[in-house]
């Protein structure tokens, strides 16, 4: 283990939440470092399926301090978003250390220092050790660990299976009928795309749908009202917001761009059931008992947060850390940024992450005047 370095605040993740966090800490004159395991800022976006476009127009996709370039009513592609994040980091000269994957975050229980009011975090990454006063976990809105049901392992091995996080385009799948499991944003997008070239079945319950065509001029009138609701009505402070929060975190967001009639135009069959079992022939079986004979399956079943590298006394309930607005009361100095519904529906959008980051930056600034830097030595 190399010599230990002290960082006042370590931000884990260089996506939109981590970069926004850095921007707001810099505005408050705080010291920080952003680390990320990817080789390039924006790679998480670049790995998504080729046809992915944001669900919000460019005018709502800029982070604080840098508007998204181009036509404000353009819906950016995944690569345009990735390039924007790279530009954002360069524009604000944010300190980002790439190809640095965190192995463990723990607490220095013996290294109390004179004048210190608490413990320090010990962060191990790629053979290096950091001592930090604060740690901000900004590793994704819903996490990056693909969720696939256990029954997938019992399906006929001749069926090509991919998770939506690995899916890139129809060319990735063999010829023949395809099954998309999960009527989420990505599930609808992928089913619509596959329906152009093959028989496609979408399985999963509808999660609600805004009665508005996303390419309609009416969107320009309605969008400000939608954004106001996402930012100020659907929050953790309101009963309606808390109800939507439970729905969003456990079942995904309501469908927006792709509607039922879009799927019907491409003869995509939408069955509002779940895949619950595997037939004797190794085929996916629905709750009604119907089996589906397909050549490929795309599991658009979401992701899970994985926090096994956090060696800290945090509570995880139904896969989510117990926090309020990103503040973990049980572990002073530990914060989360970029979680789905961290404060409001908009927390998972580009337009809402800045407010969450600013709130956490204020909490970090409030707690730091009483802290002194630890004496740095060599870890053994």
List the helices and strands and how they pair.
Elements: E1 4-12, H1 16-27, E2 32-35, H2 43-46, H3 78-91, E3 96-97, E4 102-108, E5 120-125, E6 128-137, E7 145-146, E8 160-163, E9 178-181, H4 185-194, E10 200-203, H5 218-233, H6 239-251, H7 260-265, E11 269-271, E12 275-278, E13 284-286, E14 296-299, E15 303-304, E16 316-317, E17 320-321, E18 334-336, H8 350-367
Briefly summarize what is shown.
The protein has helices at residues 16-27, 43-46, 78-91, 185-194, 218-233, 239-251, 260-265, 350-367; strands at residues 4-12, 32-35, 96-97, 102-108, 120-125, 128-137, 145-146, 160-163, 178-181, 200-203, 269-271, 275-278, 284-286, 296-299, 303-304, 316-317, 320-321, 334-336. It has 380 residues and is of the alpha/beta class.
Can you give a write-up of this model?
This protein is of the alpha/beta class. It has two domains: 4-143 and 305-367, FAD/NAD(P)-binding domain; 147-299, FAD/NAD(P)-binding domain, CATH 3.50.50.60. Helices cover 24% and strands 20% of the residues. The protein has eight helices and 18 strands. The chain has helices at 16-27, 43-46, 78-91, 185-194, 218-233, 239-251, 260-265, 350-367; strands at 4-12, 32-35, 96-97, 102-108, 120-125, 128-137, 145-146, 160-163, 178-181, 200-203, 269-271, 275-278, 284-286, 296-299, 303-304, 316-317, 320-321, 334-336. Strands 1, 2, 3, 4, 5, 6 and 18 form a seven-stranded mixed β-sheet that branches. Strands 8-14-9-10-11 form a five-stranded parallel β-sheet. Strand 12 (275-278) and strand 13 (284-286) form a beta hairpin. Helix 1 packs across helix 8.
């Amino acid at each position: 283990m190399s010599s230990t370095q002290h960082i006042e605040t370590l931000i884990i993740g260089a996506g939109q939440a981590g970069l926004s966090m850095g921007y707001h800490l810099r505005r408050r004159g705080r010291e920080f470092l952003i680390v990320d395991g990817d080789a390039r800022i924006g790679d998480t976006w670049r790995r998504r399926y080729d046809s992915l476009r944001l669900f919000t127009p460019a005018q709502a996709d800029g982070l604080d301090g840098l508007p998204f370039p181009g036509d404000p009513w353009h819906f950016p592609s995944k690569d345009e978003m990735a390039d924007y994040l790279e530009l954002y980091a360069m524009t604000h000269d944010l300190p980002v250390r790439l190809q640095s994957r965190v192995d463990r975050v723990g607490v220095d229980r013996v290294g109390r220092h004179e004048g210190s009011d608490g413990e320090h975090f010990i962060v191990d990454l790629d053979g290096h050790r950091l001592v930090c006063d604060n740690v901000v976990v900004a590793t994704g809105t819903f996490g990056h660990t693909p969720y696939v049901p256990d029954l997938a392992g019992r399906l006929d091995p001749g069926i090509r299976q991919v998770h939506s996080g690995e899916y890139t385009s129809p060319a990735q799948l063999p010829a023949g009928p395809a099954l998309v499991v999960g009527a989420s944003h990505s599930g609808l997008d992928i089913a619509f795309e596959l329906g152009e070239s093959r028989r496609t079945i979408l399985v999963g319950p509808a999660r609600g749908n805004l009665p508005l065509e996303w390419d309609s001029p009416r969107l320009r009138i309605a969008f400000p009202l939608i954004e106001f609701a996402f930012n100020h009505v659907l929050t953790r402070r309101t009963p309606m917001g808390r109800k939507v929060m439970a729905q969003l975190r456990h079942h995904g967001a309501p469908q927006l761009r792709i509607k039922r009639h879009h799927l019907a135009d491409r003869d995509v069959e939408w069955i509002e059931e779940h895949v619950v079992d595997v037939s004797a022939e190794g085929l996916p079986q629905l709750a009604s008992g119907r089996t589906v004979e397909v050549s490929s399956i795309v599991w658009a079943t979401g992701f899970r947060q994985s926090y096994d590298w956090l060696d800290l006394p945090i509570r995880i309930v139904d896969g989510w850390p117990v926090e309020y607005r990103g503040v973990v009361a049980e572990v002073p100095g530990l914060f989360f940024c970029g979680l789905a519904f961290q404060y409001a529906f908009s927390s998972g959008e580009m337009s809402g992450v800045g407010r969450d980051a600013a709130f956490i930056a204020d909490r970090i600034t409030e707690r730091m005047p009483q802290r002194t830097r630890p004496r740095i030595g060599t870890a053994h």
